[in-house]
C-alpha cells in the first residue's frame, strides 16, 4: 500500500508541546537546513516498510522535493516519492480543489493534521488519517488507519 504524509504539523512540528526526534548531526546541519521531526516518525517508517508499504510525502509547501528526500534520509526515513506545492499546482493548477489529490498519484492513504483535508477526502473519494499535532499516540493512530485501509472488504455472500 502507498501511504503519504503531510509535513507541517504532521511530521514537522514546532513548539514545546510536541516531542521531536534528535536533531541531525552538526555536520549535516551545515549542508542542509534541519527542521524538528516528530518523535515516532523513524519507528513508524521502519514499521511501515517492514509491512511492505511504500512511503510518500504530499505537502502543499514549496520545499524542494530533493531537500525533503535528503532531510528525511539523514533522519533514517526513506520515501519513494514527494509531491510538493509546485508539483501539485503543475498538475492541477493554482487554487484547485481539492487542495490535495493523493488518489491521483496512486496513494491509498494520506496522513495529515487538517480536518479540511479529511473532509475533502470524503467528498472526493480518498482516504485520510488525521493526526493532531499534540497527539502522543499518533503512531498507533496511523497504524490503526493503515490496518483498516488494508483490510480486505467483507465477503458478501447471500
Summary of the model, kept short:
The protein is α/β, with parallel strands linked by helices.
Question: Notable features of this structure?
Answer:
single chain; 158 residues; alpha/beta; Rossmann fold; 5-stranded parallel beta sheet; 6 helices; 5 strands; 12% strand; globular
Walkthrough of the structure:
The protein is α/β, with parallel strands linked by helices. It is built from six helices and five strands. Strands 3-2-1-4-5 form a five-stranded parallel β-sheet, with helices on both faces. Strand 2, helix 3 (65-74) and strand 3 form a beta-alpha-beta unit. It is globular, with a radius of gyration of 16 Å.
- Bin the strand percentage: 5-15%
Number of helices: 6
Structural class: alpha/beta
**CATH architectural arrangement:** 3-Layer(aba) Sandwich
Give me the count of strands.
5
List the helices and strands and how they pair.
Elements: E1 2-5, H1 26-31, H2 41-50, E2 54-58, H3 65-74, E3 81-83, H4 85-92, E4 109-112, H5 115-124, E5 128-130, H6 138-150
Parallel strand pairs: 1-2, 1-4, 2-3, 4-5
Amino acid at each position: 500500500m502507498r501511504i503519504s504524509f503531510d509535513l507541517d504539523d504532521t511530521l514537522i512540528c514546532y513548539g514545546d508541546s510536541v516531542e521531536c526526534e534528535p536533531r541531525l548531526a552538526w555536520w549535516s546541519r551545515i549542508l542542509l537546513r534541519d527542521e524538528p521531526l516528530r518523535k515516532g516518525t523513524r519507528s513508524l517508517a521502519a514499521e511501515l516498510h517492514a509491512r511492505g508499504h511504500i512511503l510518500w510525502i504530499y505537502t502543499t509547501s514549496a520545499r524542494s522535493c530533493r531537500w525533503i528526500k535528503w532531510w528525511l534520509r539523514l533522519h533514517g526515513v526513506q520515501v519513494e516519492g514527494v509531491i510538493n506545492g509546485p508539483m501539485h499546482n503543475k498538475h492541477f493548477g493554482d487554487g484547485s480543489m481539492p487542495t490535495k489529490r493523493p488518489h491521483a498519484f496512486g496513494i491509498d492513504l494520506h496522513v495529515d493534521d487538517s480536518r479540511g483535508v479529511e473532509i475533502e477526502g470524503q467528498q472526493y473519494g480518498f482516504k485520510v488519517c488525521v493526526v493532531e499535532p499534540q497527539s502522543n499516540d499518533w503512531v498507533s493512530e496511523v497504524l490503526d488507519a493503515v490496518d483498516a485501509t488494508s483490510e480486505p472488504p467483507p465477503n458478501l455472500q447471500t
